[in-house]
Write a structure and sequence with these properties.
Distance between the termini: 64 Å
Shape: flat
Order of helices and strands: EEEEEEEEEEE
Radius of gyration: 21 Å
Number of helices: 0
Largest sheet: 5 strands, mixed
Strand content: over 45%
Mean pLDDT: 88
Oligomer: single chain
Helix content: under 10%
């Protein structure tokens, strides 16, 4: 447990400045769930396409079994995670793969936000990470270089 000082600054509806300071105690966690290095902040796919996103769980605490689960805000997209459980020793790392399939009848702008949650089965440690997938009827363009010409 760690105690932090938090300060709230703002304005009320009359435009007066308000300030509040308080102590808050947080329980820190000893796990870290992260997306793979090459995952962009926004993944763009065409209807019918499937992609995989790697997630990595770092365990800095006691050995444990961790349940991995996913939630999404759009049931039209197929989203799965494999494996759904990792057994990690102290200072161990494990990985899982999230597979996302865009529906064939998607239109440009259809999207899903996916959250991956890791929870220890032996204590209260938990962590999560999120990313977004958007459907597009035109393939994404990757710009690899730009040339400048003087006229």
């Amino acid at each position: 447990m760690q105690t932090f000082q938090l300060q709230l600054l703002g304005k009320d509806t009359a435009g007066n400045t308000i300030s509040r300071i308080g102590s808050v105690t947080f329980e820190t966690t000893s796990i870290d769930l992260q997306l793979g290095e090459r995952v962009p902040p926004l993944i763009v796919l065409m209807p019918g396409e499937t992609t995989e996103v790697d997630v990595f769980l770092y365990n800095m605490g006691e050995s444990s079994i961790f349940d991995l689960s996913i939630t999404s805000n759009n049931d039209e997209f197929s989203v799965t995670i494999t494996p759904s459980q990792l057994t990690l020793a102290t200072n161990d790392t494990g990985n899982a793969t999230v597979t996302i399939a865009v529906p064939m009848d998607s239109t440009t702008g259809d999207s899903v936000t996916i959250s991956v949650v890791a929870s220890s089965t032996s204590d209260a440690r938990t962590d999560f990470t999120s990313f977004q997938v958007v459907a597009s009827l035109t393939p994404p363009v990757n710009v690899t270089s730009v040339s400048r010409y003087n006229i």
